[in-house]
Write a structure and sequence with these properties.
The chain is an all-beta fold and 127 residues long. The protein has strands spanning 3-7, 10-13, 18-25, 33-39, 46-52, 57-59, 67-72, 77-82, 91-98, 116-117, 121-126. Strands 2, 4, 5, 6, 9, 10 and 11 form a 7-stranded mixed sheet that branches. The protein has a 4-stranded antiparallel sheet with strand order 1-3-8-7, with no helix packed on it. A hairpin with a 4-residue loop joins strand 5 and strand 6 (57-59). The protein is globular, with a radius of gyration of 14 Å. The termini are far apart. The mean pLDDT is 97.
Amino acid sequence: HVQLVESGGGSVQAGWRLRLSCVASGYTGSRYSEAWFRQAPGKEREGVGYRDSDGMTHYADSVKGRFTISRDNAKNTLYLLMDSLKPEDSGMYYCATKTSDWVAWSLRLRVEGYGYWGQGTQVTVSS
């Protein structure tokens, strides 16, 4: 079975840095896709960034240049490094995966591109 477990959320001040982790289990293969999403109260879940099994990444315009996705394959862990945080970055952050293939270009930052989700970790940015 597929399992994704996020951690690393917390409360920080604007301008600071935070790294989220997502430990993945239950799948392996030559092609897969993983992504980070976030959702603020009263808003739709939005894609933050994408990484596929070839190491290709793609980011939402709102976080480009500030957020970086990386992966430690030995630990099977996906990371989201968030720099220069802003209050509007606040929300519940989720990792997601499509286990068997790369996600189509148009769906890389779309909820419908993914079949599995973690439970989320809360990020709150003040000031």
